[in-house]
Amino acid sequence: MQNYQGLASSNAVWKVATTTLNVSLLTMVLTVIAGYIVAFGLLHMTLKARNIALFFVLVPFWISVLVRAFAWVTVLRREGVINSLLMDVGLIHQPLDLVYNRLGAIIGMVHYMMPFATLLLFANLSGIDHRIIQAARSLGARPATIFLRIWIPLSMPAIVVSCVFVFIYSLGFLITPQILGAGRTVMLAEFIATQMSTLRWGVATALAVVLLVICSGSVFLLMRRPALRAAFEGRDLR
Distance (Å, rounded) from C-alpha 203 to C-alpha 171? Predict the structure, then answer.
């Protein structure tokens, strides 16, 4: 129990926990928004175009997380593709700091989580009854009204499930923030690894248990609601 008391009184632990929470929440918001846009687009494509798009969504699953992280370093570094392009067209005169900071870590984490969120949202959006959309159109509803008052409410369980899934996964990120953050964005998993390398097993174990309890509690609360449980399993409630 002294290890847990030490966690509660450690400024370093609270700083790392705050960083992890902020990065995970921002990653969750950006990933779910981007994933929803892609999933919504997939739903309205032709079958042939959808299969091609799904192939590109699945491509990151076949690439190592290390390869993806170092690829983002190449793209985002001061002499990288983005900075070179922006300077060539005259939009900037000095390279932007896009990597080796919190921004770089978030970009890498969002890219890693995008396929998961997209597929989870697409599976649930596919279960929405399109007759409801047709009925709204026949009654004169505009596209914006249909999206805001029909699509968003009906897809809310999927959005909540995606948020919880991305948030829980983001809490345990290690390699991506370690490479793209370059020690300036230390998250809980990296902090735990550091404690283990310095043989502070008690602190590392206590942090790991706390992280496990948070993740398990989130999943438990998620599965208590039938609508969210059905969305997590990809089932249609109709």
Answer: 17
- What's CA 211's distance to the chain center, in Å? 17
Which tens digit of pLDDT belongs to each residue from 41-52? Answer: 998 888 899 999
- Tokens linked to 125: 């959006």
Q: Cα(75)–Cα(73) distance, rounded to whole angstroms?
A: 5
Q: Give the Å distances, CA to CA, from 206 to 22, 189, 190.
A: 21, 12, 14
As a whole number of Å, the end-to-end CA separation of the chain is 49
- pLDDT digits 0-9 by tens, 19-69: 889 999 999 999 999 999 999 999 888 889 999 999 999 888 888 888 888
pTM of the model: 0.84
The domains found in the chain, sorted by start residue, are: 2-233 (1.10.3720.10)
pLDDT at 236 over 70: no
Angle CA 136–231–133, to nearest 5? 10
d(CA 27, CA 21): 10
Rg (CA), the chain: 21
